[in-house]
Amino acid sequence: MTPGPLLAALADWAAREPARAAFIDRGVPVAFGALDRRVATAAAWLGGQGVRAGDMVGITLREDMAHIVAALALLLLGCDQVTLASHDPPAMRLALARRLGVAVLLAADDADALPGLPLLRFAPQDAAAPPPVPPGRIGRVVLASSGTTGQPKLIPLAEADLAAQMARRAGEGRVFFRSIPVEHNNAKKYHLGLLALGATTVLANCAALPDLAEACARWGIDRVTLPPERAAALADLQARPGAHPWPSGTSIAVFGAAATPALRRRVMDAVTPNLVVNYSTTEIGTATIAWPADHARHPDGVGRPIDGVHLRIVDEAGRDLPPGGTGLVRVRAPGMAQGYLDDPEAQARAFHDGWFQPGDRGRIEADGTLVFVGRDAEMMMLGTINIFPAEIERAAQGFPGVADCAAFAMRSASLGDIPALAVVETAPGAVDVAALAASCRARLGLRAPRRVVVVPALPRTVTGKVQRDRLAALTEGG
């Protein structure tokens, strides 16, 4: 079978410029030639351990480079894969593994084992050659994203999809840095896709605040991508006397929660005028970019569609709205996901005749700029993490002393939506708030509420719907 675009690009660069860096890992370059050999060795070793094309393989590997090698080796073998992230509670990982029918778990440590799931310690050793991939078998990367039903949406992307999503970013530079580790879907998709561009990726373990400016100068980084809260922290650091000068050739991209006008001004004043803001989803990739000249014209805009991306704004019935009308955003682009696994309800909500509806509300200005208005329904976004009230409420329901509960967002200019939980007690003092918060963290990990408050009653409409905005207002300053 002809290699997919990521593996073909890796092989091509390994042949043409074997010494050029594909990644910088802990300050050490990993050349394209060396990476190509490591991936082939890992695929051969995995095949020797019984991993076969068509297997669904779970990955719990904290080390970015090991995770990338494993992911590429599984694609070479024609396997499907899903990250069972170490930062998620074991119960969450196990539920996801069972739902997808994971056949084996790749991990670095026996402590990451899950009940009833074979564990293979990822320690590739030299072997003759990778076993052949049966014709027609193309491996997929399954990305798990939060869902309205309280269980993750499962987004399958083929190798060609990852390459097509990143192809829209060609021309933005040759050396990239993203501040989150590969166990997060956003970073994994980004790092794999950059291989198709022949780019060099500086891994998250190489650079961090407060030394990010120095690292950018050392590695010649063209584009740094940060979530809003880290962009704000960077602006504070760079504004201090004696800070290392920010390299003039390094631009900053802010992703995730909407970048406020105030944040944009802070970054452009204190760090660099070369600031871009991205609007993206896991299913589509980057859809729009607001360039430096756009921020003054549209302080709340997230830019115009990039090459190959088409946008529409529709009403609840799916009818196109006139220019300037606020409604639901729909997007279409090469490499987009075509649906979800095992969730026909979520798929019916999000996918419409070749268009993806991410659940956001916005409007399109006369010059084509998309203005992000807010998230539809009740979804929260903490940085780059999508969180729905249902999953928090499900984790809290049944906890001793909880008579009723509702999740809501506390708004933060830098973090986006900070999840919180309001609970009604069965009797005064019946709920151990600290224990409830700990229980939620054990079940939800990063999606757990950061604050739990006791209220006498949940504010509801006459039809019984919880008024979450009132909950946020009632708890301000509390």
From TrEMBL:
CDD domains xref list: AFD_class_I (cd04433)
Gene3D superfamilies, A to Z: 3.30.300.30, N-terminal domain of ligase-like
Localization, UniProt: Membrane
Occurrences of domain AMP-binding enzyme C-terminal (ranges): 391-465
Keyword Ligase found: yes
Keyword Cell membrane: no
Segments forming a coiled coil: none
Keywords linked to the UniProt accession: Ligase, Membrane
Domain AMP-dependent synthetase/ligase: 11-341
Topological relation to the membrane, as annotated: Peripheral membrane protein
Domain of life, per lineage: Bacteria
EC number: 6.2.1.3
SUPFAM superfamilies documented for this protein: Acetyl-CoA synthetase-like
Pfam hit, one: AMP-binding_C
Pathways per UniProt: Lipid metabolism; fatty acid beta-oxidation
Protein name as annotated: Long-chain-fatty-acid--CoA ligase
The species this protein was found in: Roseomonas fluvialis
